[in-house]
Structure formats: structure tokens, C-alpha cells
Amino acid sequence: MTDLDVGVWRVVRADGPDWVARWFPARRTVEAVTGDAEILRYLAALDFPAERCATAEPVSILDGRPVLVTGWAQPVPREQRRDAIRAAGGIARLGALLGRLHTLPPGDGAIARPGGGWHHVADGLPAAEIAAVSRMLAEAGHRFSDGERAAYEELCGQVAALDAAEGLPEAFTHPDFALPNVVATQDDMILVDWAGAGRGPRVWSLAFLLFAEGARDLRRVKLVLAGYRQHVMLTGEELDRLAAIARARPLVLAAWAVSVGRLAPSVAVARSAQLRELTDSVAATALAALAGQ
Prior knowledge:
The structure is a single chain. The protein is an alpha+beta fold. It folds into two domains: 72 residues, Phosphorylase Kinase, domain 1 (2-Layer Sandwich); 218 residues, Aminoglycoside 3'-phosphotransferase, Chain: A, domain 2. It is 48% helix and 13% strand. A five-stranded antiparallel beta sheet has the order 1-2-3-5-4, with helices on one face. Strands 6-9 form a two-stranded antiparallel sheet. Strand 2 and strand 3 form a beta hairpin. The longest helix is centred in the last third of the chain and has 27 residues. The N and C termini lie far apart (48 Å).
């Protein structure tokens, strides 16, 4: 077994193909993880490039915590990853895959469950993610001295005011549809880590993808949209709220880091000012690209 991430291992097997084992925290119920497996079977039936369940019964329980096993998608060597992604269609293909995901036919069961929130803090809609991090911040408040108190309170206010994309068009979606969750193989790009997937506001995941790529280079925003708009055209309200929604997940991550002691509130608040400038630029670039289509 080789560590891939916290609670995630590659399992090298002598009697068959390798697996990926995800051992979820006790907060995630076995029903939620069984739903993850149901979603993977749904995606497989539609030939969507996602990881596949490793067995007919891929969910088990270890020490009271659910485990999901999926097949190991053999990645290319690290030094070949960039070329492999380009060969598979690059950032525009990634945008197109997200657009395709947002047009998949509706289903029932886990396919229809509320989704889109970051499963490390909460299952459900993005609003549940924001609420969970707000609670974590509140519980951590006693740790901050007078020197950090003002920044802490400002951060709490900023998180409480985040736009969770409520009331906007919904679709089946992945909560973290970005390059870190892409396995580049010799033949394709495979999306992994579907925990927390379900039905939620489609612009939430698109906004995070645009942010993640725009932070690297604003020209990548246009590439994402070139692929995405092959399948989906955003509404005027989605475009109007794009900058605010794009700020939400990055600020949630910063607030989570503060709540677990990895970041000082003053640093998070300073980053939030930079984040606003970046997300405004990402949204402006997106609007310009769509206006010139």
C-alpha cells in the first residue's frame, strides 16, 4: 500500500488489477459512501471518464469508518503528465467534460442527492460547506488573542456573507472538478474523488475551475469556457454572480486552515483581499470571452 493522500492509498494486488482505497472519516456515513459507488456506476453506464468501482460490492467498513475501493487508473509518469493532458484535449477538454457532466440526464437515489459541497467538511449543497466552516471557525474562536481577534472576526463575517449560488440552475456535479483530481493516462483524462457529488448549482463547480485555472494564467479561463459552452450557456444571473461565487471555495479553504490552526486569521484576511482582485479579473475575462463568442 502506498499513501496517495490523507486516508487514500494505492493497493498493489498480486491477484488482480491494483485498487485505490479511500477510508473516509467517521463523519461520512456508509450510506453516503454507498451513494458515491452508485454515482460511479451511473457514470460508467454513461461512459463518462471517471474512476470505476473495483468490485461489485466496493463499500466496506473498517473500525467504524466506510471504505470505498476503485480501480487504479494508471497515470503516465509525472514528467509526461502535461503532455498527456494536452494530448487528451487540455484545459478546453476539461471544461467540456464539466459541461457534459452538467447535461447528464437526471436520475434518482444518490444521483439526485444534494451535492457540490466539499466533502472534507460537509456533504450536501455548497451552503452546507459554508455553514460547516462557519461552525468550525466559531468553535476555534477562543484560540485567538487580541492581536488576531479583529482579523478573526472579519474573517467570520466574510465567510458568513459568501455566495453559495443558491437559487441558480442546478445539475449533477462534482464538488472539486479541477486538475488535481484528474489522472492523466496514456489515453484520456480520468476524473477522480467523487465523494460529495450530487445535484447542486452548476456554476459553483464551474466558478472554482475558472478560479483554479485563472490563478495560473487568465488565458486559461477562455480555454475552460471554450469547452464548457459546447454544452451549457450560463444565465445572466449566473454571470452576474460569477465573481462572488468564484471567491467562495478559496475563502472556505483559507477559513478551514484557520480553524485547524494552519493559518493565522490576519494572513487569511490579507489573502482574501488578493482573492477578490483575482476573482474579479477571472469573471471579467469570462464575460469578455462570452461576449466575443
